[in-house]
Design a protein that fits this description.
The strands form two sheets. This protein has an eight-stranded mixed sheet with strand order 2-1-6-5-9-8-7-11. The protein has a three-stranded antiparallel sheet with strand order 4-3-10, with no helix packed on it. The chain has three helices and eleven strands; from the N terminus they run E-E-E-E-E-H-E-E-E-H-H-E-E-E. The mean pLDDT is 90. Helix 1 links the parallel strand 5 and strand 6. It has one domain: PK beta-barrel domain-like (M1 Pyruvate Kinase, Domain 3), CATH 2.40.33. 38% of the residues are buried. The chain starts with a strand and ends with a strand. It is mainly β.
Length: 144
């Protein structure tokens, strides 16, 4: 289980830009990302396997296109329980707060990609401990 992509954006409802590393701030989220803040969806996670499946279905998508902050390998996120805690890299600790989401309106992501899998396959977390994360960092479940 590891990070395969990290992405951020300055505006909500848009694709995110892939970056090699990010500063994750306790009780806030990823520095410089529009979704960061004092709420329960500070960081979004999506399995790279879901992005690959969307490609196989004919969508021209890449990392960040579904507005996910962290794309992972080896974790089926919709199957993890809310409240589970995860160590990302050497110091960042996340707590899963929400599985999926309800989109009130179709955003730029839906129109650009032709679909958005984040509401069905993504999860959201709050930051319990901050630090720097990088592509390739391992992810470990802490409470299993």
């Amino acid at each position: 289980m590891e990070i395969v992509s990290i992405a951020v954006s300055k505006k909500k409802g848009t694709k995110k830009t892939v970056v090699p590393e990010a500063d994750v701030v306790k009780d806030y989220g990823i520095k410089g990302d529009a979704h960061a803040g004092k709420w329960h969806r500070q960081v979004s996670l999506l399995a790279s396997e879901n992005i690959e499946e969307a490609r196989k279905q004919g969508l021209n998508v890449d990392f960040g296109d579904f507005a996910e902050n962290i794309a992972t390998q080896g974790i089926d996120w919709p199957q993890v329980p809310v409240g589970s805690r995860w160590l990302v890299g050497s110091s960042v600790e996340l707590e899963i707060t929400q599985i999926g989401k309800v989109c009130k309106a179709r955003c730029a992501i839906y129109y650009a990609a032709g679909d958005c899998i984040m509401p069905r396959k993504g999860v959201f977390a709050r930051v319990l401990k901050g630090g720097i994360i990088k592509v390739g960092d391992k992810i470990i479940r802490l409470d299993s």
